[in-house]
Amino acid sequence: MAASTSTQTSNRTQVGIVGAGPAGLFLAHLLRRQGIDCVVLESRSRAEIEDTIRAGVLEQWVVDLMNQMGLGDRMMREGHFHSGITLRFNGESHHIDMAGLTGGKRVTVYAQHEVIRDLVAALLEDGGEILFGVSDVQLHGVESDRPSIAFRRSPDGPLEALRCDWIAGCDGFHGPSRQAIPKAVRNEFQVVYPFGWLGILTEAPPSHPELIYANHERGFALLSTRSPEVQRLYIQCDPKDDIANWSDDRIWSELHARLEDRDGWTLTEGRIFQKGIIAMRSFVCEPMRHGRLFLAGDAAHIVPPTGAKGLNLAVADVLVLSRALDAFYKSGRTDGLEAYSAVCLRRIWKAERFSWYMTTMLHRNPAETPFEQRVHLADLDYVVSSRAAMTALAENYVGLPMD
Ligand code: RFL
Ligand code: PHB
What we know:
Organism: Azospirillum doebereinerae
Strand order of the largest sheet: 7-6-15-16-17-14-18-21
Oligomer: single chain
Distance between the termini: 38 Å
Helix content: 25-40%
Protein name: 4-hydroxybenzoate 3-monooxygenase
CATH topology of the largest domain: FAD/NAD(P)-binding domain
Number of helices: 11
Pfam families: FAD_binding_3
CATH class of the largest domain: Alpha Beta
CATH architecture of the largest domain: 3-Layer(bba) Sandwich
InterPro entries: FAD-bd, FAD/NAD-bd_sf, RIFMO-like
GO molecular function, one term: oxidoreductase activity, acting on paired donors, with incorporation or reduction of molecular oxygen, NAD(P)H as one donor, and incorporation of one atom of oxygen
Bound molecules: 8-demethyl-8-dimethylamino-flavin-adenine-dinucleotide, P-hydroxybenzoic acid
Shape: globular
């Protein structure tokens, strides 16, 4: 495909990475450690990507990887390490001892934007190249052996071309990379849930030592944390609801009703300084490779946040990709690149299954029959009373083995 306007400047790298989210930034770090040249193109500013509030939970192997890569110092100082989570339903709380059930793997709460800050700072310090605020990003020639990415450094700057051997599409669900795979080749699978999450950040001390996932007749609620001073909480809501309908009083009253149980524990309130509503979907695009383009992270798949898997899956994809590219550049081998999509999809579908299972089990779906709702409560009861079921939940939550 030819560029729509003439390209005035040309740059070259081995791997062109579109998107500086967790997928793009981890990939850049992994490739640079292997001596592979790459450039990251990001449409937002550095401040924007460093301030976007998203995920919170890291799988144990991601924590280990960050430490092995020398990127984990602040996470180890400021992150929260929990041995388990609490499931709350029918007015009762049940502790799931994740560490005890998985040979010591813990639940790490360290916000995604903190990971982004650490990765951006280390990459730039190390001489890595991230172009922030680029526009008009278009992928060209992905079916040829000379792909390129067209972009502008500033909205009225010239159209430039980044020529590369390979393109990594790490530009999230709404980015252009997935659209560069012809529709006839793409197989897309999707579930859109009839509920969303209203998330808040509040200035308050922690109310509880670990995360609480609650299934309540008024709907799901989740208590998480960010720091000794800031807490993150979510409540199930209508995904089309207007945040203006949610006064702080209404939010606190729903959180109290849904999170508090019969044992007298109470939630500590604070000033709410951020609130928003997100819709929820499950989505997978197969295959994740087309010619010289590889999709990674949310560009290829979405999970509802209930299983805390999205960021972790993005890192898993790019670890597989970096190993395949390493084998290609070190010994000309292409088997890893050919297997990329299939290898990633095996893990992705297990995470899709787990996230869908946690979501359907913990939320109240107005479209479900009373029979189905009873089955979800029975499922919760089974999970907290069977060591086998509890272990299955725990090993998925802390992260299935990478190899
Ligand atoms: P991202 O993070 O969306 O990054 C994509 C980047 O690409 C840029 N981009 C472009 N750049 C250049 N040109 C273009 N045309 C571009 N279009 C887009 C974007 O600006 C952006 O910077 O995708 P990535 O790297 O694949 O990472 C995925 C994760 O961000 C996502 O899966 C998680 O946030 C999901 N998630 C959670 N994941 C977890 O592992 N644990 C959790 O606890 C967890 N909780 C959550 C979550 C997501 C949430 N929201 C808001 C959807 C909780 C929430 C509320
Ligand atoms: C969060 O802290 O933002 C968080 C925690 C657990 C989840 C999702 C989000 O399942």
